[in-house]
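In the design runs reported in the main text, the only information available to the sequence generator was the tokenized backbone. The following block is the verbatim input for one such run; it is reproduced so that readers can re-run the procedure and compare outputs position by position.
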């Protein structure tokens, strides 16, 4: 419906018309038609909704403004079909948005399947294809279109859909809008936007400032977004330039175990988990009209973003600390024999005890072999150079009175029955937390050019684009402590000195990635009849990815607590700074346990305590694909005067691809079979990613140079119907399926290592339905989506906290025939689960519903209620859907009093389910306009204060009640046998209230 009204120069209503008798009131004229949808990232191709053979969902600037949504996740979850959100991070700006089973997420490691564009600029970041939702200003958006399926026009990564966001401008959005909101959790939000034009030049600016303490402990966030756009419009030519600047500080303290949530929903498991995001984006675009049907559009852009994060977490590898590794610091008590301390030569002054070879077997160092370079076989003949003071002995230390992890000395644990070892554990100086620091810098440059032809029968475009991205990534970790508020902190002075990683940052990776994509594409919509539209499109992509990595070296791939400085902790002898006694210090400074590592592994250039390898890894990968799409849209009754004349049938098939990102290639599983022991080529073979000598990934903390991953291919089809009832009611329904080949998933290989690997096929299929309309003062809408997202191939992954995880006997050794030709296991190894075809993916509910009911009580007052409901979904770690609440964990232990002496024993009970239950929440909103342009509004979210969770994962809780272990100030239990296996949940926010003022003119 088009209405005419007199406007002020800035777009406000001219109420003075009521005082001017010369003003003529124009009659309202109703014109039936459809607004054109801009297909593709660039402007130019104009299609009506009925010409597009898919269920495109659209929201206008008014829809976005009236929603008062905090983020796009809130907006899409409450208004669109087949959408759900997963709050793994615990922050409204860092949610995973899932559409038809495909995600767009700010979290590294989440499989990304949606493309997001802002004015034609792809905002998926180069590193991991993540989407930082906090970098998109809501009050600058003029429209949002969601295109489902693998539409090739949107380029790479469009596996399940694309979001096309377009900003406001001074021509279409003249006037000003000032809005302030405040309320629960000390939220303060200010939004200011203004647009102006003089008919030729237009300008639009928007700013958002957001500050909130958060509903959980220690969870404040600050968001600052600024956007400006300038347009020039001539008769045949138009230009636009926009810039976006964002600086945000987000705290999202992650998932929480169920028992802690039940005690105090506002608490956090550990903190801090902070992210600082910054962005500068520049975009220059234009359109030239040759005539009213033919035009040329193009743009160039630059996008610079940075991300710094600090994550404080529990040190779960504490569970692996054994009595033989570490103990309570003990006091030196002379030497074993009362003789002088041994003094060993270091003739070449390399800090390594001198060694030689004894190949003739006479137990003497062969001449000419002192400190020679070793080959892998030489370790069999290795011999220490004797001490400079014969008859000496090593330093004696008191017996350990208790292991750091009490589980290693637990008398009830048959693995260790030594009654002299206390099961309580050691609190003082023991690291229980880990601080991970990450810094990412990214920039992307791009250009595109597109020719458009919009005639009555043909809607045709052809174009090309180039996008070049650069990424720098650096990360480090440090062991620390946890205080009573669950805050992880570093305190080297009070850390047991044996832990090198508690005294300094251990750098994991220095990474540079470059990717360049060249694309050519076309689209043709042919309308031979007014009610029949045939679509053809395709895109040719070529992508080159170059990675340059310096990763943690071989010793650095040990668990952080295993990077030890036992020379300072328990020195047993004296290492001299030369080859004679005069060069020897007086005090012990060397532990003889270091000998094998110092001598054998030091010959390997990839060995070192947390240092980078001497030789960086460089890789180049090329990917080429052509992705087609065909579709048909038919309105069989369009020319007939019947109530169902708008009935529209449509069908679409499309193919899309996604080239692996730099992080996926740098952290890919390597199944190359290598010797487990680098010094012994005849040792047991194992996949490189399993071996202690190989690279490891503990995202986002470790990368390694690894093999090629194939690009993902997606085949999608959609069959649907849509139409109207009596002009005021619209409906639609669709049946869809997308099959992925060579899908990439973050697969656990060991308890502390994860890799991206090709897992075979996956499928997302379902049905969606929408119905909306109005009667009198009431308007109503409901959206339903059934999404069945499943794995379609067998694979194995580590999930130690899954009740169905495999438990192998210590006598069950790996052999080469247990791996396929790609080095992937053929059966579940220890702590592994088997995922089978038909198993549902975590975090994707089968049923998703949102509904709204709005009452326009008067011309000034409106009131509405919104419902959001999702069914239950499996949690991460339960990819096989076989975790069972009430089952027990099992492990093998030794008992020499029985035969056989290896027993399968029952351990922890799994208290929680492997899924989060379904839920429904209701939200209220109201608005009252006192005078035209000035209104007050209010919102109540989660009206009935429903406790719910949107996502979760299986995990373990070290803050468990004590049966044997000592309990520290943080609540940490220092006997890991007492720890409880639990489900960690992404809890939803409780009831909250906000009020606001808005002034528009």
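Verbatim output:
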């Amino acid at each position: 419906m088009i209405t005419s009204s007199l406007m002020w120069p800035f777009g406000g209503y001219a109420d003075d018309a009521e005082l001017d008798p010369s003003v003529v009131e124009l009659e309202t004229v109703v014109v039936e038609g459809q607004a054109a949808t801009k297909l593709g990232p660039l402007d130019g191709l104009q299609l009506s909704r009925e010409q597009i053979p898919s269920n495109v969902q659209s929201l206008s600037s008014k829809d976005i403004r009236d929603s008062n949504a905090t983020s796009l996740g809130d907006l899409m979850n409450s208004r669109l079909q087949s959408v759900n959100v997963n709050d793994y991070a615990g922050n409204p700006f860092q949610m995973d948005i899932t559409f038809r089973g495909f995600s767009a997420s700010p979290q590294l490691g989440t499989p990304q399947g949606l493309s997001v564009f802002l004015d034609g600029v792809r905002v998926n970041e180069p590193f991991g294809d993540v989407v930082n939702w906090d970098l998109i200003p809501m009050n600058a958006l003029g429209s949002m279109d969601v295109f489902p399926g693998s539409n090739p026009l949107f380029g790479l990564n469009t596996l399940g859909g694309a979001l096309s966001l377009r900003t406001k401008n001074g021509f279409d959005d003249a006037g000003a809008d000032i809005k302030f909101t405040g309320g629960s959790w000390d939220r303060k939000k200010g939004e200011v936007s203004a647009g102006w034009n003089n008919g030729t030049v237009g300008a639009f600016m928007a700013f958002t400032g957001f500050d909130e303490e958060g509903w959980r402990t220690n969870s404040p966030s600050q968001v600052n977004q600024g956007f400006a756009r300038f347009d020039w419009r001539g008769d045949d030519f138009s230009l636009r330039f926009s810039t976006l600047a964002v600086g945000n500080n987000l705290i999202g303290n992650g998932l929480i175990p169920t028992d802690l949530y039940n005690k105090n929903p506002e608490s956090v498991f550990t903190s801090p988990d902070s992210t600082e995001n910054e962005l500068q984006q520049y975009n220059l675009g234009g359109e030239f009209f040759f005539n009213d049907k033919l035009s040329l559009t193009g743009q160039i852009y630059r996008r610079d973003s940075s991300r710094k994060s600090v994550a404080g977490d529990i040190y779960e590898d504490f569970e692996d600390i054994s009595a033989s590794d570490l103990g309570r610091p003990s006091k030196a008590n002379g030497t074993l024999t009362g003789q002088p301390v041994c003094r060993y030569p270091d003739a070449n002054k390399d800090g390594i005890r001198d060694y030689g070879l004894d190949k003739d077997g006479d137990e003497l160092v062969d001449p000419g072999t002192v400190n020679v370079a070793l080959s892998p076989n030489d370790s069999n003949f290795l011999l220490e150079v004797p001490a400079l003071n014969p008859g000496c002995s090593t330093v004696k230390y008191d017996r350990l009175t208790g292991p750091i992890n009490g589980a290693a000395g637990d008398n009830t644990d048959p693995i260790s029955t030594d009654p002299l070892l206390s099961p309580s554990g050691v609190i003082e100086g023991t690291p229980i937390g880990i601080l991970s620091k990450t810094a990412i810098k990214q920039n992307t440059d791009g250009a595109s050019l597109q020719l458009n032809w919009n005639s009555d029968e043909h809607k045709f475009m052809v174009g090309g684009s180039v996008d070049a991205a650069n990424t720098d990534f650096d990360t480090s970790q440090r062991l620390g402590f946890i205080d009573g508020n669950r805050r992880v902190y570093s305190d080297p002075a009070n850390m047991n000195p044996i832990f090198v990683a508690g005294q300094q940052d251990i750098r994991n990776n220095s990474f540079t990635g470059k990717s360049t994509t060249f694309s050519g594409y076309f689209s043709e919509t042919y309308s031979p009849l007014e009610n029949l539209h045939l679509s053809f499109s395709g895109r040719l992509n070529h992508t080159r990815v170059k990675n340059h990595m310096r990763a943690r070296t071989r010793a650095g791939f040990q668990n952080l607590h295993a990077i030890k400085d036992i020379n300072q902790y328990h020195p047993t002898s004296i290492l001299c700074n030369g080859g004679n006694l005069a060069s020897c210090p007086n005090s012990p400074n060397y532990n003889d346990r270091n000998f094998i590592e110092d001598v054998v592994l030091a010959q390997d250039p990839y060995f070192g305590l947390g240092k980078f390898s001497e030789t960086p890894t460089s890789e180049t990968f090329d990917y080429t694909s052509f992705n087609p799409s065909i579709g048909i849209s038919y309105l069989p009754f369009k020319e007939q005067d019947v109530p169902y004349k708008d009935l529209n049938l449509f069908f679409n098939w499309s193919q899309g691809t996604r080239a692996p990102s730099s992080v996926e290639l740098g952290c890919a599983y390597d199944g190359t079979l290598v010797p487990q022991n680098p010094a012994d080529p005849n040792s047991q073979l194992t996949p490189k990613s399993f071996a202690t000598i190989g690279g490891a990934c503990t995202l986002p903390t470790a990368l390694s140079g690894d093999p090629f991953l194939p690009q993902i291919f997606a085949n999608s089809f959609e069959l649907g119907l849509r139409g109207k009832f009596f002009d005021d009611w619209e409906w639609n329904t669709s049946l869809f399926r997308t099959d992925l080949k060579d899908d990439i998933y973050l697969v656990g290989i060991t308890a502390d290592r994860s890799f991206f690997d090709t897992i075979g096929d996956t499928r997302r299929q379902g049905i969606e339905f929408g119905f909306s309309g109005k009667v009198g003062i009431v308007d109503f809408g409901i959206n339903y989506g059934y999404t069945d997202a499943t794995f379609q191939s067998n694979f194995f992954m580590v999930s130690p906290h899954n009740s169905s995880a495999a438990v192998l006997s210590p006598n069950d050794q790996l052999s080469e025939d247990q791996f396929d030709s790609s080095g992937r296991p053929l059966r579940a190894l220890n702590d592994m689960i088997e995922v089978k075809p038909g198993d549902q993916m975590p975090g994707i509910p089968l049923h998703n519903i949102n509904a709204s009911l709005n009452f326009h009580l008067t011309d000034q007052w409106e009131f509405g209620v919104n419902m959001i409901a999702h069914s239950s979904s499996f949690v991460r770690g339960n990819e096989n859907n076989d975790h069972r609440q009430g089952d027990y964990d099992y492990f093998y232990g030794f008992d020499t009093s029985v035969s056989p002496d290896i027993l399968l024993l029952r351990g922890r009970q799994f208290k929680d389910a492997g899924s989060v239950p379904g839920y429904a929440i209701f939200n209220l909103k109201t608005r009252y306009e006192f005078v035209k342009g000035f209104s007050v509004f209010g919102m109540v979210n989660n009206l009935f204060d429903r406790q719910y969770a949107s996502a979760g994962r299986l995990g373990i809780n070290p803050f468990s009640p004590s049966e044997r272990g000592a309990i520290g100030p943080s609540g940490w239990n220092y006997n890991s046998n007492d720890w409880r296996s639990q489900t960690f949940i992404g809890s939803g926010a409780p009831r909250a209230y906000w009020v606001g003022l808005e002034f528009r003119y």
